[in-house]
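User: Sequence in, structure out. Go.
Assistant: Echoing your sequence, followed by the structure tokens.
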Amino acid sequence: MLTLGRKTLSVPILQGGMGVGVSLGGLAGAVAACGGMGCISTADAGYREPDFARDPASANHRALTAEIRKAKEIAKGAGMVAINAMVATQDYAAAIRTAVEAGVDAVVSGAGLPLELPGIVGTTDVAIAPIVSSGRAAKLILRRWAKEFGRTADFVVIEGCKAGGHLGFAEDDLLAGKCQTLDDILPEVLAEVKPFEAQFGHSIPVFVAGGVYTGADMAHFTAMGAAGVQLATRFITTYECDASQGYKDVLLNARPEDVRIIHSPVGMPGRALNTPLVQALAEGTRFPPRHCARCLKTCDPAKVPYCITHALIEAVKGNVEEGLFFCGANVGRLDEIAVLFEQISQIEKDHEFRFMSALAGLKRNHPAKESEHMSQEQVVTVDGYRCVFCGAVFDHRPDVCGVCEAIGAFEPTTYRKKVSR
């Protein structure tokens, strides 16, 4: 079990927030029901409300409350239900307060530096976490929280350069492939959180996101010291995801070469599919907003090349022509509509096996010796050898577990012990 604030996770998997309308109560609740952390995006959560065009703030707050309650009902006390709140939005603080009143378990915040988050949340009953893309950002945020609010993060999320949606990297570096990798950033962030762990007397688990897709990916980063991972794109093509089937079909049909780095009206680069909208924007076409809800702090409707709210709403409806379809770098690996529980179970199973293999640190040219790892009593009283990582049982003691070797385990030479079958 992993403790985050005053709640626990039995599965160290977070679901990344995806707006508009991709991760609402349905997906978030299903992830929490599996023992992970489901995350509702606060970005225009009320886009389906009848008064959204006339009074977006009221519609969004009402819908956000309803989606949190829906997720909680689905979870039935398991896992955690969180929100993802973007610093760049006008309604940032008010949306967080609404979520806290509705009983959300955690607030995850990015798309800017969430320097005021502890004060907005106002209670330690709700876990808080910044989204960062560097050790420097983590240090800046945690130092501010400690000094101004006497509080630190309950966990930290690192979003790497392969993530979908808005990215905390320079656009030129993303296009040139010069960004730090998660392998580079994770040790930096782990080092930066240590002083705050010591100061506040509790651990600050670090999760990684962006390009994380399989249990093997998860094992790689947990072996490096991460507490777990955050996934988003992979969960879109599940039955439980709140997006339309049209949205899911667009991602299912995407190829790796369809992915582009775009510039968002939020003021940050992002990763999205090369749909007709993105193609037209690349050619210099402007799509003046037909209606402005003033959703972003920095957006100038007289100059902005397109309305991101409109584009994201059209996407979640499945409108290929007008929609902006954010996605992670692994979108080309999506190949079917899946059951969320089965996805998470497979990721967990693969992670456990790969992680144990990595921790073993065994070398192919140094096979385990029977005399070092098995007692004579074990040898004579039982009749089979079981690989402690994959569970395969052999009549004789092989030098290498053929099952581990066949699936490409980190080190197929594993310790074995005699077992009765």
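User: And one key feature?
Assistant: The chain is about 40% helix and 15% strand.
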